[in-house]
Amino acid sequence: MTPNLDYLIHIAQQAGEILMQGYLQKHEIRHKGRIDLVTEMDTRSEDYLLGEIRRDFKDHTIITEESGHLDGLEDHCWFIDPLDGTANYAHGVPIFSVTVAYAYRNQVALAVTVDPSRAHCFSAERGQGAFLNGQPIHVSTTQALVDAMLVTGFPTDLKDPTKNNLDNFSRFLKNVQSIRRLGSAAIDMAYVAAGWLDGYWEIGIHPWDIAAGTLLVEEAGGLVTNLQGEENYFKSPYSLIATNPVLHAKMRTMLQVTDDR
Ligand code: IPD
Question: 229: domain CATH number?
Fold first, then answer.
């Protein structure tokens, strides 16, 4: 049995409601690393999502941020981040999301990112376009870096200068209109799909953070590759450029300096 987009929208919205119940409350915060946080709400949201998918699609593989890799059929694989933007959430900053993707035979087929604090539901089905609350969305038509507002993120381990993204950030900053760091990769990519931001890049990202976003951007007319420019980008070590086709070549050139070092 395979899921449909309405199913993903339903479970992601329900998980978003769980997050809103705990938003601005006092949290139990655990540290997975020096600056890598997890709250009890990540766990509650994930328990809900796993419970639903396990009940309805018993034999599917599930890859999640908190529980890791739950074995199942290789052809049917879910990617789940029950709370993308945990640091924002823990601080009370209303930029966080639930992001869910379903991949069939190693290709993301269905994608949903819900921002519950703004009632935004971004969704996409392969070949059917990308949508925000049911309305079609498209990547921007910005052509020049100097007119582009980009977005990025940083890994939690900043020690390795070839992977910490600081050189890229500084180089882009001198060549684009502006750069945002929103703190939820899933929202970053949804905003690129909506054309609100012009391009996203990140190094050392996790598959559950970006699986839904890749389909959203592609279905909104964008181009997604890894930093090496490969369209077969969904593999470790995960790095990503997601933008419109014209800006893609320009972003890739700016990122090649680090890439080729
Ligand atoms: C993080 C966010 C952030 C990105 C990090 C992710 P989390 O996910 O998506 O924007 O820069 O790489 O780990 O930890 O909030 O689920």
Answer: 3.40.190.80
111 alpha carbon – ligand 1 mean position (Å): 18
Question: Any idea what the CATH number is for the domain that residue 130 is in?
Answer: 3.30.540.10
* Ligand 1 lining (C-beta closer than 6 Å): 65, 81, 84-87, 153-155, 183-185, 202, 205-206, 209
Average pLDDT taken over every residue of the chain: 94
100, 90 Cβ separation under 8 angstroms? no
3-state secondary structure of 200: strand
- Residue ranges of alpha helices (H) inside 82-226 are 86-91, 166-173, 185-193, 207-219
Ligand 1 centre distance from Cα of residue 1 (Å): 31
Question: What residues contact residue 195 under an 8 Å CB cut-off, 6+ apart?
Answer: 137, 138, 139, 140, 141, 220
Name the residue of 29, 184, 187 whose CB sits within 8 Å of the most ligand 1 atoms, as the mutation to test its pocket.
Answer: 184
Residue 249: which residues within 8 A CB-CB, separation 6 or more?
none
How far apart are the C-alpha atoms of 212 and 232, rounded to whole Å?
16
Its domain, for residue 81, covers 5-136
Look at residues 210, 243, 206 and name the one whose alpha carbon lies nearest to residue 224. 243
Cα of 258 from ligand 1 centre, angstroms: 21
Question: What does the pLDDT look like over 65-85, one tens digit per residue?
Answer: 888 899 999 999 999 999 999
Tokens of 169: 């950030």
DSSP 133: T
Give the confidence band of 260 by pLDDT, cuts at 50, 70, 90: very low
The runs of H, that is alpha helices, within 105-206 are 166-173, 185-193
